[in-house]
Amino acid sequence: MKHQIYESIRTRKQRGQKSLAVLIDPDKTDAKKIDELTELTSKALVDYLLVGGSLVISNHLDEVVQRIKKNSTIPVILFPGTPSQVSKFADGLLYLSLISGRNPELLIGQHVISAPFVKQSGLEIISTGYMVIDGGAPTTVSYISNATPIPADKNEIAICTALAAEMLGMKLIYMDAGSGARKAIHEDMIAAVRAQIEIPLVVGGGIREPEKAYLNCRAGADLIVVGNAIEKNSSLIMEMSDAVHSVPVLKP
Question: Quick one: how far is CA 126 from the chain centroid?
Fold first, then answer.
């Protein structure tokens, strides 16, 4: 089984290096936009490209991934909202279990259905404990999942949820305020979770300013994901990358 992407994330964490991923939603892009984004992300030295969304109704996931791969050498990781969002042309897939909710379909049900297809895809599979945090507004993921987000001020719930995922053997924790969140996840919660887990911590949702990306990294995020902000202003990619990669490397 492949482990290149996960090992790169883990190695960067061990070295104290922060990473940036840009999320590309197939429903909100076209060939021209993909060409623009791949050029900008390459120049900005973005570390990873995530592809996916809560719906993906456009039915051209393979085409999007293939065009990205044609233009860029940045690893492409699928961020699926449903089992159907799998493309063999990508490099890896975040196998998301919605551990913050109590919907059995998103904890394990959809994984059972998708497992044979996912295995046949040949993708690197990265088991991910996915935690939706209240971002101050209803989001697509909270609506689709029919799951209540973790309250933004309940650090202890976030800590225990992340710990459970780590002890169950998941490789990543992904804390997400969701696309369209009014508020990004507070640094206090990020720091509290980071202090209790050893696996890499991914943070996304509502990160619109480079300063916020920087502060989240200083609080303990290993990988920052931006999507909605750069959809509206793609020139932010360079600023976001500079902010994330400027975080001082703390020696062990």
Answer: 11
